[in-house]
Amino acid sequence: MNTDERFLDTLIAAERNRAHTPRNDVEIGLAAVISRLADEGAFAPAPDPAASSSVGAADAAAVSGRTAAGLVGLIVVAIGAVLALAHWPREEEPSLDDPATPEAATAPGAADPPPSGTPGGGPPVGGSRAIGPTGSDAEQPPPRTCKPGTLQCPCDTGRACGPGMSCTHGLCRVGRCGDGVRNGGEDCDGDDVGGETCWERDGFNGGDLECRPDCTFDTRLCVKDGSELGCDDFELGATSECIVGHEIESELWGDARCRDEFGDDWRWLDHHSRHQWHIFGRWVDGKLPTTYGWVKISSQDAECFSSPVEEDGKGGTTRYGLTWGPTEFVRRQERDASGQPRICGSAHCDAGSGLEGPQYRPRPNSPQGCNPYRGDTPCSMCRPLYCVRRVER
Amino acid sequence: MANEFRDVRAREACPQGVNRRAFEAVYRAHVDFVRRSVRRLGIADAWVDDTTQEVFMVVGRRLHEFRGDAALRTWLFAITRRVVQTQRRTHYRHARKVDALARSEMTSSPAAVDGPATIKARRELLLNLLGCLSPQKREVFILAELEGMSAAEISAALDIKETTVYSRLRTARLELLEAVARLRRAEGGTT
């Protein structure tokens, strides 16, 4: 194998082991598409309460048996059963519709990534030999059961691994992910990152090493020589006055409003500014907004001047505009002049229920908060505009 | 009575829709695969989430049509490649709406050629190199080299012969090696 081949294989290996999507992002995306499909009437009628009390393959079978016709029902049942066996945890999952369980978006287990060496969620289906360099891995799928008490042995997500252990990330581990203590094979757990920093990971040399809900490292806040845009690269601001959504005329109008308040290099925050439906930055004067704010979106009609007129759930009609929420986080590795951990801010498309309280549902009959497709907050409501400035360093 | 009878017949004739729980399970199990595929098929980072959503909108509408005669992932990939083709055209139309902030980030240059130091840089470089391949070869390369699918699965997903899978994979790798060699020569590296 010559140098070029080794070089290419290095690139392929890096992409093949791509990290999984953060659980919260999965739930945000799922909620958005569920909402759109429900509006289209794509789903079968809801099951009766007795049928909905159980979760998993039996539930899918019961529901489908009642509502789906003939072969269609059988196919859906089969898919549900296979997936339930392969991916679902045995414990009951929180419902997206249940306002009492906003933490559903971070519940560990259901979307655990595959064990290393099986990119994409397991060995190839169908028993055929995989072609390419991954063939050897694909030929030897991990054992599907765990010997009790064996650390780090492969297991199916949701399967019991023995006393005091859990199947996390495809491996049996001591303790339980989410208990706040790094143990077993966990990379981290909550705030316990085991003293690791961004410096040890992927060549990063700064920023914050965070912990995902599935107890693996999250390097999204790590930076490398300024090539990764982070907290210091953007300044965020919310207009001092709230603006009734109907008054927003256009993207240019929003940009002008931000410039008027903060300066020439400011603009109205765009949903796609940072690729992942969120942006990190410093809030002006270190103050987080006390409410969600209107943002624009380049690819969808989800601003108050562009979104479709819809029923408001109260007998009237309205438009909905897209809003993001504010958060802040602590950069553990960095200290301010007084020696305290530095506080950084962010804004993001929030799957939760909003600052108005856990019962607040901006869009009627919708389990989600943020809706980048048709807006989420009635345009009769008053919200600040979220503004952004790229900081040149 | 006649109307009721007609209504019953109509319901039996038409699919009643997708089981929501089954759809949620499909989404959670395969959203990573779809996102990866969308990105590897050439959709810019800024549009990966939107395009993934569009793929699952199609899946939600058509899940009841899934016959099980192909692996679910190959069925999903077939949908993904069609949506990506459509989204490319759509995104070009929207391009003028994209603000300079996002645009400046999407056009960031790939990593250094003499051995990218970070995994992220290696991934970006590979995705850039994939852009050198024709769509047909790129699809085969993605499924074989990055997803570890068998030739039979790829054949089913793309509706091509297995011999075509092997020939496209071989030429794709050769073309990528040529691109690597050119890149390294341009940067003064040795081969």
Walkthrough of the structure:
The complex is a heterodimer of chains A (393) and B (191). In chain A, strand 1 and strand 2 (171-174) form a beta hairpin. In chain A, helix 4 packs antiparallel against helix 5. Chain A is of the alpha+beta class. Chain A has helices spanning 3-16, 23-40, 49-52, 57-67, 70-87, 135-139, 251-262, and strands at 165-168, 171-174, 206-207, 210-211, 217-218, 222-223, 234-238, 243-244, 266-268, 278-283, 293-294, 310-311, 317-318, 320-321, 323-335, 341-348, 377-378, 382-383, 386-390. In chain A, 46% of the residues are buried. Mean pLDDT of chain A is 64; it is low at 48-130 and 132-152. In chain A, strands 9-19-7-10-16-15-11 form a seven-stranded mixed β-sheet. Chain A has a two-stranded antiparallel ribbon with strand order 1-2. Chain B has 191 residues and is mostly helical. Chain B is built from nine helices and no strands. The N and C termini of chain B lie far apart (81 Å). The longest helix of chain B is centred in the C-terminal third of the chain and has 25 residues, at 162-186. In chain B, helix 7 packs across helix 9 (162-186). The model of chain B is unreliable at 1-15 and 93-114 (pLDDT under 50). Chain B has helices spanning 2-13, 20-40, 45-62, 72-94, 100-106, 119-130, 135-146, 151-158, 162-186.
